[in-house]
Amino acid sequence: MASYNFLSQVHLIVITILIIITLLTPITTNTSPQPWNILSRNNFAGKLTTASSSVESAATDFGHVTKIFPSAVLNPSSVEDITDLIKLSYDSQSSFPLAARGHGHSHRGQASAKDGVVVNMRSMVNRDRGIKVSRTGLYVDVDAAWLWIEVLNKTLELGLTPVSWTDYLYLTVGGTLSNGGISGQTFRYGPQITNVLEMDVITGKGEIATCSKDMNSDLFFAVLGGLGQFGIITRARIKLEVAPKRAKWLRFLYIDFSEFTRDQERLISKTDGVDFLEGSVMVDHGPPDNWRSTYYPPSDHLRIASMVNRHRVIYCLEVVKYYDETSQYTVNEEMEELSESLNYVRGFMYEKDVTYMDFLNRVRTGELNLKSKGQWDVPHPWLNLFVPKSQISKFDDGVFKGIILRNNITTGPVLVYPMNRNKWNDRMSAAIPEEDVFYAVGFLRSAGFDNWEAYEQENMEILKFCEDGNMGVIQYLPYHSSQEGWVRHFGSRWDIFVERKYKYDPKMILSPGQNIFQ
Ligand code: FAD
User: Fold this and answer.
1) Measured between alpha carbons, how far is 142 from 296 in angstroms, rounded to an integer?
2) Which one, 25, 107, 128, 487, has least CB within 10 Å?
């Protein structure tokens, strides 16, 4: 009995000591989110927010098909804030993930950081600084958090403009340079990533470097199209040219896909032809306009809709020629000559004459319209592809005239336009097909919260069709659920992508939402 009492007293003392030790020891493990612990120990917590509204908005993006919660959001006010954050993670034994978030216009959680920290780059925007135009050097130095529309507004004040654009301008410089940045100017000027002269980048080790094609060139090319994997861009120097004043904006309708692509390919092979070229597919039975563009005269809607009805799939070639005072007398003649050389369905040519700004900012009207109806923040199960020229006719048969017609669910814009591979640069991280000419194809759907999965299913069907046919199709704004998908995506360039990851972000801290390195 005495020994039992003695043993239970010892037991009690040991338990009490353990409780005291536990209470006095700083919490270092699972009880609360890991980055928060590291950051609070380093007096960094004051710069972060865990407010549910911030965390909730960092968990979602334009796609509205994923919800990936970070532990906290950093609203940096300086480059040092970001450098310090990355260093804290890099130096810690248990690093935490973090992702730069530009404008959150990804569609699949690419700017998320599960249980880590999302860096809200837009909080860096300071209206008094951050965009510096050099008239003599013909470039603009811009903080990566600025939107392209803001860059355009600023450069136009001095009569200058970047030359390569996206269709929609409310995207950050850092966000599009991490992907590519493509539009109807790409065939001529290359994507936005080939129009950058220099960048400041904070690597995954928390080191800041200025890079260009001649200085730290491997980092420079790694980051361009690098899906945020190698560093956070804080500044980019973008090439400029003298801005044109106006745009002649023409559309031509086709029923024959081979005539349509032949005309597109001929136009992009010319060095002095149009300034912008895109194309789209119409399969709907509704009005020919869509959220992205209000273009056709209402008096022609019925005529166009009945053409779509009759042929089930029709195509639209869209070209633009910029002009100003010096070329205003020749531009009409030039466009007339161009129209005569094209094999569109006669009687189905449309023309608009708008300011340069109105043309570049054309998608904004659609956005505001959708926002006013509460239809902007809805699921967007988008699919963007690069299709080699040799496969585009097979793609038309199998996808536009096959899967899309059969499923009969696709609504919204479907883009299809070619670009020249020689305007890209193989040292950049962006993955593109091997052929000299390849097509950008974009299914830009808006869906409901209750039916977006049907579109996702259709996307899978399209991807499977391309894979089964061994067509060499590569996703743009890619999403792959497994690393095998990424290995296939980069093909022979996968090894260099991995090598660069180990070099610039060895602890795999950056942009985990791309799902490349688990
Ligand atoms: P986010 O979505 O915030 O981030 C995208 C990725 O880049 C993430 O991985 C993020 O971590 C990383 N990132 C962000 N900022 C930085 C930085 N400073 N440094 C390093 N990494 C960073 N794309 C085209 O090419 N052409 C188009 O015409 C086009 N039109 C679009 C129209 C709409 C309506 C939308 C929603 C998207 C469109 N896109 C287009 C796609 C768009 O270019 C990409 O989704 C782009 O990433 C969005 O930019 P963002 O600033 O919102 O980036």
Assistant:
1) 36
2) 128
pTM of the full structure: 0.92
Q: Which residues are catalytic?
A: 105, 167, 278
Task: Write out the two tokens for 278.
Answer: 């895109």
Cα 305 to middle of ligand 1, angstroms: 33
Q: Which two tokens stand for residue 279?
A: 């194309």
Q: Break the chain down into helix, strand, coil percent, rounded to 5.
A: 40, 20, 40
**E strand intervals along 72-223:** 72-74, 98-101, 117-120, 131-134, 139-143, 160-161, 196-203, 208-212
Residue with tokens 């009569």: 159
Q: Which residues contact 6 (CB under 8 A, 6 or more apart)?
A: none
Distance of CA 180 from the midpoint of ligand 1 (Å): 9
- 332-253-422 Cα angle (round to 5): 75
- What is the distance between the alpha carbons of residues 343 and 260, in angstroms, rounded to a whole number? 7
Task: Please give the number of the atom of ligand 1 that sits closest to the Cα of 181.
Answer: 25
Q: Atom of ligand 1 at shortest distance to CA of 182?
A: 25
The tens digit of pLDDT for each residue in 383-438 reads 999 999 999 999 999 999 999 999 998 778 999 999 999 999 999 999 999 999 99
CA of 194 to the centre of ligand 1 (A): 16
Q: Are 76 and 124 in contact (CB under 8 A)?
A: yes
Both tokens assigned to 489: 């995506």
